[in-house]
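Question (not urgent): is this output format expected?
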Amino acid sequence: MDGIAPRIDTTVILETPEGIGMAVRPAGLFVRGLAFLVDELIRWVIIAAGLIVGAFLGYFGMGLALILLFTTYWLYGVAFEVLNNGMTPGKKMQSLQVIHDDGTPVRLPASMVRNLLLSVDLLPAAYTAGIVSLLLTRNFQRLGDLAAGTLVIYRPVEAASSAVSFSGVRSPPFPLTPAEQRVLVDYLERAQDLTEERSAELAGLLCNTFAITPAQAPREIKKIANGLRGGA
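Got this back:
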């Protein structure tokens, strides 16, 4: 069953410090760009408001406004990522979050590194370096993510909302590693959000592995996954 995990969409398996396989989906350029635009708008609304207020307070006010500009632009992302489970307002709107590349919640040092290195990602202009890095790295990491050891992923969907109605179990024909088990369970939990055609296409990738026909694949793979998650 080697190689199954990378073939299920863009899902990758991270090994947590406890040695548990964790399946996540790194977010690509387009959705991250949308989140970035929302966050940029919020940043500049705050900065503009500070500059307007500062203009009425003379040189002292303008000095405070410039401090606000610096702290808002560079610490906005850090504050939200550390205090809001890796989610800025823009990321939350797109159902994204920042985590460490071992699956643990992002912490202050890594968040500071990835946000301060936005200045490198924007070189030579219009975030060219960051965009190129996103497109060339397997897990869609910009330079700041590579330096900080972080990933931007789609927030996991609660299993209860996606697989609660499925019944039927089947034992796998051979032992599965924790990472392989997690991939199958993720497929079951995401199945209701996929079209019938896409669900069949993904299950069909495992026909030879589990010696089942394409017509049987979606239900039989779900049975195996349901058994792995303790269903009945």
